[in-house]
Design brief:
This protein is mainly α. Helices cover 77% and strands 0% of the residues.
Length: 494
């Protein structure tokens, strides 16, 4: 690190990086309560509205691993500034969009830049705090801010949508991002020269992202076009070609593949990623369906919906904190099964929705489902990361977070399609509620199946998660710290 890097006030660097990560995690949840307003203003159908969420999620997942490697090769500062600048421009394009295609395309670019930017924040943080004790303290603060962004996103989205318009959930990123770019350009350390000798696996990122988008597109279109339609079969065929090309790129062509398939020889890594994928299948869809129910059926305003979602967000955090504190002392399979069954019970309870369900009977089961999902975090995270070789720790945690995003995106496509197929053509409040309830009951069944799969594949003992943090942000921490440093960094749970 250069002398200039040493002179950078480390507290200021931490604040800068924490605000940037807060903005990214906020953007994952702030959109939910604005979906009905977006759909009404731009004429989205029930099918196409999903792409406002999935366009971001799939691009984020597809470029997360690439972003970590780019920060490693070219330096966190360069990647941070470039990706943040693109994120700001994409946010402006989202807020100014006048049509469906323009908004979804801007969301894809926004997700892509977020997938590259998020690892860069930790690359800079770990380079700035090179002493273990100071680094762990900084990681705890950074994680708390990141988790807070996800928790307040729904409420912030409701306030902005009610007070101004849905466009401001995107436009708010512009002044904040512009200030961050200016501050980062003058304050972030330059570091050393970019390292050569390795290449970015851009073909791998493009093929896996394109394949997933084609797959999700096909799943969404089954409701209106039918499983045997040329449109759906063509989408599935394209997905197969692109994902097959991804496998070829990773195993035969890429000099530095995003996903060396040998990592899946580890039973723990394979089991952890499978459970990560399955456990997140119902999650994104639950937020989506409840948003449409609360505003479209019950007539709540966006800010009211945001307030209803707040305790559910806190329940996820609480469940994950309990999970990570228990994992070292209890049977991991029992902890995972307890979380899965609690989540299934909450989803089944939500599956009793009707047009006149008491709002307490929406909040309570929602909190139960999300707390149960949080209890599943530690066994999944520790299995997926501790099963990898020391020099593959960063890759393992990156795969974990990627499979979470992919599971959520595919789950949204599947469960939203189930909801639409069980909604009567009249589209009354009772019919919509029945469709949402059917999809939520399907989500409960998925949690039960996930619980059984976990009991069969996870070991009884996994040990303490000393090098990871609870929740989505924690997995990102573990992966990116180890990807940047090439070694384990022990960041204890705060």
């Amino acid at each position: 690190m250069t002398v200039r890097a040493v002179r950078v006030p480390r507290v200021g660097t931490l604040a800068l990086l924490a605000v940037a990560e807060f903005m990214l995690t906020l953007d994952l949840s702030i959109v939910n309560v604005a979906l009905p307003a977006i759909g009404s203003d731009l004429g989205f159908s029930a099918d196409s509205l999903q792409w406002v969420v999935n366009g971001y999620a799939l691009a984020f997942a597809g470029f997360l691993l690439l972003g970590g490697r780019a920060a490693d090769l070219f330096g966190g500062r360069h990647v941070f500034l470039g990706a943040l600048s693109v994120f700001v421009v994409a946010s402006l394009a989202c807020g100014a969009a006048t049509g469906q295609v323009a908004l979804v395309a801007a969301r894809v670019v926004q997700g892509l830049s977020a997938g590259v930017l998020s690892p860069a924040t930790l690359s800079i943080l770990t380079a700035t705090y090179d002493q273990p004790q100071a680094r762990n303290r900084a990681l705890s603060i950074w994680t708390a801010v990141a988790v807070g962004g996800g928790a307040v996103g729904a409420l912030a989205g409701g306030v902005l949508t009610d007070a101004l318009s849905w466009r401001w959930i995107f436009l708010v990123n512009v002044p904040v991002g512009a200030v961050l770019v200016a501050v980062a350009a003058s304050r972030l350390p330059h570091g050393g020269l970019p390292r050569g000798g390795r290449q970015l696996d851009v073909p791998g990122a493009l093929t896996v992202t394109g394949g997933l988008i084609a797959l999700v597109w096909g799943l969404i279109r089954t409701d209106t076009a039918g499983w045997a339609s040329a449109e759906v079969l063509g989408a599935f065929a394209l997905a197969g070609v692109l994902l097959g090309a991804f496998a070829v790129v990773e195993t035969r062509l890429a000099r530095a593949p995003l996903v060396p398939f040998a990592v899946f020889r580890s039973r723990l890594v394979s089991a952890g990623n499978l459970m990560s994928f399955l456990s997140f299948v119902p999650v994104m869809a639950t937020w989506y369906l409840l948003t449409l129910y609360l505003q479209g059926v019950r007539g709540y305003t966006p800010i009211q919906a945001g307030l209803i979602f707040l305790p559910m967000s806190l329940a996820v955090i609480g469940g994950s904190q309990v999970s990570f504190r228990l994992i070292a002392s209890v049977d991991a399979r029992l902890l995972f099964a307890a979380g899965g069954l609690v989540a299934a019970a909450g989803m089944a309870w939500l599956g009793r929705l009707s047009a006149d369900t008491a709002i307490a009977a929406v909040i309570a089961p929602g909190c139960v489902a999300m707390a149960g999902g949080g209890l599943m975090f530690a066994p999944i995270t520790v299995a997926a990361t501790s099963g990898a070789a020391p020099d593959q720790g960063g890759l393992a945690s990156g795969l974990l977070n990627t499979t979470r995003q992919i599971g959520g995106a595919i789950g949204l496509a599947v469960l939203a399609t189930i909801a639409a197929s069980h909604t009567a053509p009249v589209g009354s409040g009772a019919a919509l509620s029945a469709g949402y309830a059917t999809a939520l009951r399907a989500g409960a069944a998925i949690f039960v199946a996930t619980t059984i799969a976990g009991a069969l594949t996870l070991p009884a003992r996994l040990g303490a998660p000393a090098d990871d943090q609870p929740g989505r942000a924690g997995g990102l921490i573990s992966r990116r710290v180890r990807a940047v440093n090439g070694r384990r960094v022990r960041a204890r749970t705060p």
